[in-house]
Amino acid sequence: MVIKPKIRGFICTNAHPVGCAAHVREQIDYIKQQPQIKEAPQRVLVIGCSTGYGLASRITAAFGAQARTIGVCFEKEPSEKKTATAGWYNTAAFHKEAHDAGLYAYTINGDAFSDEIKEETIARIKEDLGQVDLVIYSLASPKRKDPDTGEVYSSTLKPVGKAYRTKTYDTDKDVVKEIELEPATEEEIADTVKVMGGEDWERWINALAEADVLAKNAKTTAYTYIGKELTWPIYGHATIGKAKEDLDRAAKMIRRDHKDLNVEAYVSSLKALVTQASSAIPVMPLYISLIYRVMKEEGTHEGCIEQTYRLFTEGLYAEQPKWDAAGRLRMDAKETNEETQAKVKELWDQVTQDNFHELADYAGYHADFLKLFGFGIDSVDYDADVDPVVTWEQS
Ligand code: NAD
Hints:
Rossmann fold, about 400 residues, alpha/beta, about 15% strand, binds nicotinamide-adenine-dinucleotide, 13 strands, single chain, 7-stranded parallel beta sheet
């Protein structure tokens, strides 16, 4: 099959196996060039391991610390006629690289919110690793089925309190336009918290501890985006921000409930980047294209892999990590500092349809977007016939 990108709205509906493998290798190569991580975890569980920040975390643990990793993700497998999702191909590529490097890797593909997948993961940890020392929680999902009631909740990306009129960039049509976003109802806020808040993170940690597969002094982190004034109305102070606030509550509860194991639970705030999850959020593509330009000019631009490497070395496994007032690990300071934000604000105020390509790093945004699905990579021959059916060997 010759595979070319099929873009629909903010998503690409297919993926290129060779391109995804090259993208994974690029991240592994970056980690291999960094100093090995000291005091690093050796047995790691990554929930949401196949794309974006979760994949980068898994690569960091495996190739930066020689950790044995178990990953959980929710990806579509390929058929002769249809490609898999990018996360499937990324996982296959990760497994191959891990295998070649003699590193243990096992991936469970299924709904991480369900009790069944938690049980399957626990059984695998018992069998292969005994316990885990680090649990990364990096899920981004529009839906969650509550395992107790069977009810399915959907998240909403809306402002809270009042309507919000703003600029946005339609990546599909290449158009900068004004949109008006209606405020969320109380129910929509509660549902978003149910999907993207801390409840499932707590459930995972409780289940792992109860099954005695969580090591003493284990660490766990869930990821958040805090941002600043430009993104607060649609992120930080919006429905998704309410869900993220709930992670702070969950981190406290995990620390309190698992004092006997001395579990360290943190929320880690990461920078805004192009991922499948962030492409779906109104305003974010415009903001990201502008912040890319500013941070590239400042020489401070980072991708997922640079962020997660710093999270391990300057946060989770640093001798003296810096927490913010709420006890979160902050990897986003290069983005959220006043000076950088002032430059983005200046561009934001000027940007229109006519000057968008001039003011924003559209090329950088678009290249990163295509790369998420394995497209636009120089070393890959996109006219070649490739087999879409790719799988992986568990360790
Ligand atoms: P992503 O879409 O790239 O990754 C989501 C992961 O979750 C994938 O591995 C996917 O397979 C998995 N997943 C989704 N639903 C699942 C389910 N039901 N069961 C099992 N696995 C499931 O997203 P991302 O941008 O890397 O986001 C990861 C976390 O990082 C989120 O909490 C997000 O809020 C946070 N974050 C993202 C940004 C950003 O700009 N992208 C910035 C800061 C923080």
